[in-house]
Design goal:
Length: 183
């Protein structure tokens, strides 16, 4: 249990660990969006088949490649650190394709790229002989008090902190979920 950690992935923080550590979400796509829009607009104005259009396509592709490389590098660094520090890592089973159907969260979720991060964790765990644990998709990790087990049904996505009515413990939503995932 000392070498096991629970990981709750999110949008505001890329990952929250059961030891209380929060890994910031770098949001590489959001930072590059302005430049992407400008280059996309320039591309749309070019005549089809022209050399200038081909150059604009290359400029746009370079920006997309840079975002991808930044995200991949970040995920490799985080996954390597978590694998080297812990014997077992527990995740929540997520159906990202279903979550992305919410159009207001889709871009942020795709920018975080949870699926590729979990894939990196899985193959690195296999390389180093570590264990990846998965909890059920419908486990109420956020809504359960990690101290007394009280199930708070009133929690929505907007509520970031809550107090357990039974044991009076104040919970940060994400850290509480990470601890429940570990348990």
């Amino acid at each position: 249990e000392q070498n096991t950690i629970g990981v709750d992935v999110g949008i505001k923080d890329f990952a929250v660990l059961s030891n209380g550590e929060k890994i910031d979400n770098p949001k590489y796509l959001k930072k590059s969006l302005k430049r992407l829009k400008v280059v996309s607009k320039q591309l749309s104005r070019k005549k089809k088949g022209s050399n200038n259009r081909k150059k604009a396509i290359k400029r746009l592709a370079k920006i997309h490649e840079k975002v991808t490389n930044q995200r991949t590098d970040f995920q490799h660094k985080v996954s390597s650190r978590l694998i080297s520090e812990n014997q077992a890592i527990a995740f929540e089973t997520l159906k990202v394709n279903n979550i992305v159907k919410n159009h207001s969260l889709a871009q942020a979720i795709n920018d975080a790229s949870w699926s590729s991060f979990i894939t990196k964790m899985e193959y690195k765990a296999e390389w180093y002989g570590k264990t990846i644990l998965r909890i059920g998709q419908f486990e109420p990790s956020t809504k359960l008090c990690n101290v007394c087990g009280y199930h708070n049904k009133e929690i929505t996505l907007q509520i970031r902190e809550w107090v357990c009515p039974e044991c009076k413990t104040k919970h940060d939503r994400d850290i509480n979920a990470a601890i429940n995932i570990k348990k």
